[in-house]
Amino acid sequence: MSVEEETFRELKDVFGDRILDFKIQKMRVYVKVPSDTYREVIRYLVLLKGIYHLETITGTEVKDGIEIMAHLGTGMPISIRTTVSSEDPRIASICDLIPGAEFYEREIHDLLGVVFEGNPNLKRFILSGDWPEDVHPLKKSFESKHNLPLREGFD
Amino acid sequence: MSTFDIPIGPMHPALPEPLLLKLEVEGETVVGVDFDVSYMHRGIEKLLEAKTYFQGLPLVERICGICNAAHGLCYTLNVEKLYDKEIPARAQYLRLVVEELSRIHSHLLWLGVAAFEIGFNTMFMYTWRDREAVMDMLESITGNRITTEYSQIGGVRRDMPSNLVDRLLKTMDVVEERTKYYTKVALTERTIAKRTQGVGYLSPEEAKATCAVGPVLRASGVKNDIRADDPYAAHADVPFNVITYDSCDVFARIIVRAQELLECVSMIRTALRHLPEGPFRVKLPMKPNAGEALTRVEAPRGELFHYTLSDGGMKPYRYKVRTPTLANLGALRAMLTSKGRYVVNIGDVPISYGSIDPCICCTARVYFVDSRKGRSWVWTLDEIRERSRRGELLP
Amino acid sequence: MGIVGWARSKSPWIAHFCTGSCNACDIEILACLTPRYDIERFGAVLKGSIRHADVLLVTGPVTRQVRDRLLRVYEQMPEPKYVVAVGTCATSGGVYRGAYNVYPGVDSVIPVTAYISGCPVKPENIINGLSFLLKKIGESK
User: Fold this and answer.
1) Subunit contact C101:B43, Cβ cutoff 8 A
2) Which pLDDT band, with edges at 50, 70 and 90, does B16 fall under?
3) Rounded average pLDDT over B178-189
4) Within an 8 Å CB–CB cutoff, is residue C71 touching chain A?
5) How far is CA C112 from the centre of its chain?
6) How many angstroms separate the CA atoms of A29 and A6, rounded?
7) CB atoms near residue B352 (< 10 Å)
8) Inter-chain contact B296–A55, Cβ cutoff 8 Å?
9) Cβ–Cβ contacts within 10 Å for residue A63, how many?
10) E strand or H helix that includes residue A57
């Protein structure tokens, strides 16, 4: 059994049916879990398996909501994905487990509107202070043209 | 938390300012740090969704104007994972050569800027003069000094003829000799030691907890390098040493980068000696397969992360880029916050900030708040450096 | 050309402002100070302070956050002032044109005297552009 398959087997043994889907590639294991299991899987990996490096958290708007994927990169890299609904995009923060997650969660909060419950500092990070609160640029419904005020006499 | 009046100066705090660092100070000591990176935000990820994969390459290279080769390489490697085609070995070796050449230019640039921060203007001029030899080689090989777009989807853009190989090897001899000289200066000059040892301290535990990457992580003794842990391009065939240092301060970061330069030289020599024959590019169709791909590359600043989700069309459904500087912001905060016996002085801020090799301009402005005195003010990093020299760090 | 124009064209004080570019143009501007290009032989002095600058070199497409700061910087410059848009992004928005957070170039925010193109602009072009500007300054007044 390859290292990738072994890593997946261990997770499957602990979390059983709560792993909804998985994918094994060279040097990367993907698992999909429901949103209430997301934090538990990461907690298991950080506290019991000694994983400390979070590469990033990606957010993508998909058909049934917003997909959040945490990419852990110590030893065999594991990416844990989950989906939250677009109407009420909330998920548990992992900042207490991995302090470095703070900026990645703030970025997704700005660009996609996901609320990370438990993030100590969920303020504006990447969008300017005067950007409207409920407009999230990475959503497919946001159109990329702008009406920024141009100088008089500019054509 | 007590309230205080903020004196309204020539710059009103409520205006959307391109502030980068917000420091909470008590007198000259820094006690708290927050960031606002909004002024660099250009909306690139959204723009990439509107361009085809092939059109996206010039945009991705310009995410950072210094480690652009790493961005281009990561992008092309990532998109290629969506195709079922093997990329020629010659292309992977040539990619490695240009990637390492770009790392040399980036580290020499940084050494010059670090020297300038410490007050060694002559060293700045020397390193940048030596860097020009590398820029000339980049221009001869790729056609441009920076934003070379050498790595293309399917291979590299041009082949490297043997006369260029010879010239490159000669340039490597020069770089090696100059780097050894700079390392000797860094290790023996007492002014450098005084200004950098113990400054910007980041313990290994903090480095891991804040998810630091690159030379910042390795200067705290942690042996992580994507080229060794998860090799890409031709790195599996080209051996090198992962450089770490244990003193966890700005001095360690200087030594790590200087020694990495020597490793780059050795890797380029090995790659050129074993350059395989064959094509340097394969043609790939406009539409890749549907699916997702994820690639990590060791940029000069650290681990670079690209992720894409394809729906089988010409344009990406989603493209995500995480730059190494963003990953190091947590580490920067840790090294700028005074705790226990580790005291951070305002004067240490520019060099600590510079030591993470940030991909941000130097006209960055720092916003200070001293709650005990009820004052707030803004200085640029240049101003902090000048005031530090004059010993005038209280407003 | 009058004596004031002559004096001004012989030693222009240059300030540099980055409005959210990828920094490649900024690095090439800094490279102009180094021995190979040596812009100081033209008497050009790169000063940090805007209040004493004759010429403002602006790089980068103007991001939304930086626009007000750029306007203020321009207002703080004493007359006569000259603005040089350095690089393709400063000229037209460059590769970022169309992004939601970016203006289509510096001249959509402040008036520009000269444009130096390139992505990034080569140091030779910066020197060429600045010499052209100095000649223009010298011929005024």
Assistant:
1) yes
2) very low
3) 90
4) no
5) 9
6) 10
7) 22
8) yes
9) 7
10) strand A54-62
